[in-house]
Amino acid sequence: MQVCVNNQQLAEAVSMWRAQGKTIAFVPTMGGLHAGHLSLTHQAKKNADKVVVSIFVNPTQFGENEDFDNYPNTLEQDLIQLKACQVDAVFTPDKGQVYPDGFESHLKAGSLSQGLCSDSRPGHFDGVVQVVHRLFEIIKPDVAIFGQKDYQQLLVIRQMVREMSLPIEILSGDIVREDSGLAMSTRNQYLSTEEQEIATKIYQVLTQLKQVVLSGEALAPAIAHSKAVLSQDFKIEYLSVLDANTLKSITDNTAQIAILCAVFLGSTRLIDNIVFDKG
User: Fold this and answer.
1) Which residues of 4-14 are buried (b: 16+ CB within 10 A; e: fewer)?
2) Among 37, 106, 124, 225, the one annotated catalytic
3) pLDDT for the residue numbered 64
4) 20-43: per-residue pLDDT in tens?
5) Is-catalytic flag, 34?
6) Closest Cα partner for 94 from 129, 56, 61, 63?
7) What's the whole-model pTM score?
8) Residue 192 neighbours by CB distance under 10 Å
């Protein structure tokens, strides 16, 4: 496994693989790796000859009073885990490699970035598309893998790739959960043991709401009830039942549904979702 700290090192590795006719899959991360990230690397290995994982905490997607300065840094352990997964290269750039002096980006996230996370994190998805596009420029992958837990982000990136006609296939990896049902997240490290137990209620509520949707019962009172249950332990940012492809209200033409939520447990922001066929 090569650890590349600058663009030149990575470019040399990629050029060698390209000369050998190899295809490249890319898994972008911000470190603090857990089984969810590692599942994406396994998926990447099935879809390309070579796998590159980046570890870069992108400052442009953090807003004021968010946790950029305190975001978990577990690089040594991350590298051990990635080596065990037989990743071919890990890209660990500093800010200057990704955003060199004089770098300007006028990229803006598309229409799918509106609402949900954007309501409380204005500019967040602009920062996401900026860094993802920049990493695509550096790595030039054939395939890139993103986790479904950040569902709105996944759709925003797919929209960017589609609208810019980038020759990159975007695949999604299923949410990996603890035995309790809690979606794995780097930010779970912020939770106490007691809070981790409380956090399991998120998935329970989403699962119950899914059953209501599939049963055809009235949706508005079910959502109100779910919010009431969550509000006993969490500060709710949003809980929405939407068309999984458009992130708009469900219609008769909706084929897939996404139930998405963001909540605060203490000072820790947690997101989760369930995506399923309308039936």
Assistant:
1) beebebbeebb
2) 37
3) 80
4) 999 999 999 999 999 999 999 999
5) no
6) 56
7) 0.96
8) 11
